[in-house]
Amino acid sequence: MNAILRYACPEDAEAVGRLHYTCWQETYRGLLPDGYLDKMSPERSAKIFRSTGCRNLIVAICGGEIIGECGFGASRDADLENCGEIQGIYVLKKYQRQGIGRRLMSLSLDRLKSYGYAKACLWVLKSNENAKEFYRSAGFSPDGAEKAVPFNEIRYITDIER
Q: How many whole angstroms separate alpha carbon 15 and alpha carbon 31?
């Protein structure tokens, strides 16, 4: 797949919001409560991206459409030192398993490394076997940390000092 990857800009907020909403519906239906997913909207997702100015976000574009995104930054976990975080990675279902997610992840990890981080973490739903397989294939492994709020998640971590 010849998707173009680039850093997102504030003008991408609406398109990234639509992508985020669609990916949550495709990915989490059956894994999260329907009531939670039913309360989501493309507009609410876009508001999140507008508020951050799409900072630290890489998008994948195919045919002029944003089909994937990966957000990254400093780890939000106080127990980790010198650690960046993959804060979300989503690719539309019809474009999955074509290497786009791997490219988004690789570029994001390179960026975290350039920020000086030695490690990267991410959180994944315990029940999301597809995502866990993807993260393991990208070099991540569970470190034993878990949280139940807002959802049952486990933390994965990888060394990026390659």
A: 25
Tens of pLDDT, residues 87-97: 999 999 999 99
Q: What is d(CA 4, CA 65) in angstroms, rounded to the nearest whole number?
A: 10
What is the pTM (predicted TM-score) of this model? 0.93
Instruction: Round to whole Å and give the CA distance between 82 and 64.
Output: 36
Residues 142 and 126 sit within 8 Å (Cβ to Cβ):
no
What's domain 4-159's architecture?
3-Layer(aba) Sandwich (3.40)
Confidence of residue 131 (pLDDT cuts 50, 70, 90): very high
Residue 102 is encoded by which pair of tokens? Answer: 């791997």
State how far the Cα of 89 lies from the Cα of 122, in Å rounded to an integer.
Answer: 10
